[in-house]
Amino acid sequence: AQSVTQLDSQVPVFEEAPVELRCNYSSSVSVYLFWYVQYPNQGLQLLLKYLSGSTLVKGINGFEAEFNKSQTSFHLRKPSVHISDTAEYFCAVTRYKLTFGGGTRVLVKP
Amino acid sequence: NAGVMQNPRHLVRRRGQEARLRCSPMKGHSHVYWYRQLPEEGLKFMVYLQKENIIDESGMPKERFSAEFPKEGPSILRIQQVVRGDSAAYFCASSPEGDTEAFFGQGTRLTVV
Fold first, then answer.
1. For residue B29, is pLDDT > 80?
2. B7 at A interface, C-beta within 8 A
3. How far A16 CA lies from chain B's nearest CA (Å)?
4. CB contact under 8 A, A97 and B93
5. Mean pLDDT (chain B, rounded)
6. Beta partners for residue A35, in sequence order
7. Which residues pair with B13 in a beta bridge?
8. Of A49, A97, B37, B76, which is the most exposed, with the fewest CB atoms less than 10 Å away?
9. Do B104 and A45 touch (CB under 8 A)?
């Protein structure tokens, strides 16, 4: 079985400040890892993914994430956020079935 | 290549009625997932289907809910005798294989009155 824990349910952050969203997972087998973003009243959009190779993954909109196998983590970062980054972010893992964390709401304040 | 299409986008049903939610996967995708998102909560897995097969329905409530993905046509999530607690956003996602990222539709927002 696999599970995903997003350690922060809400993250308030000021515009142009950096942000980090934490994600830890557990699985008895190797998995693929994803971050998705959900804007209000929208579906989910893929931000980035880790399948193999370099542990630092760059995604869309200036986001990046680092896979740490020993700590079973896949934290998402952005060095400078915009108001438009206000959304909910979901970490997910898959090994045949996508499993999501509970989500982290990011509120960017001016 | 059109994305994952879900319809309707909004659905209102009275208690006791049936709700049918449709999902057309992306072209070439044979794997479909259904997720439910309750207000202020995360995404909860419901069911994973391939064409004509239910692979994993461990997240489906035991009663009133069913899903299918026929050889031809969209995947259908069916909720019989809806209750207020069924009000939620239901998202469908599709992928070409099981071990890749899934692409999501815009969701169907079900309101039971």
1. yes
2. no
3. 26
4. no
5. 92
6. A48, A91
7. B112
8. B76
9. yes
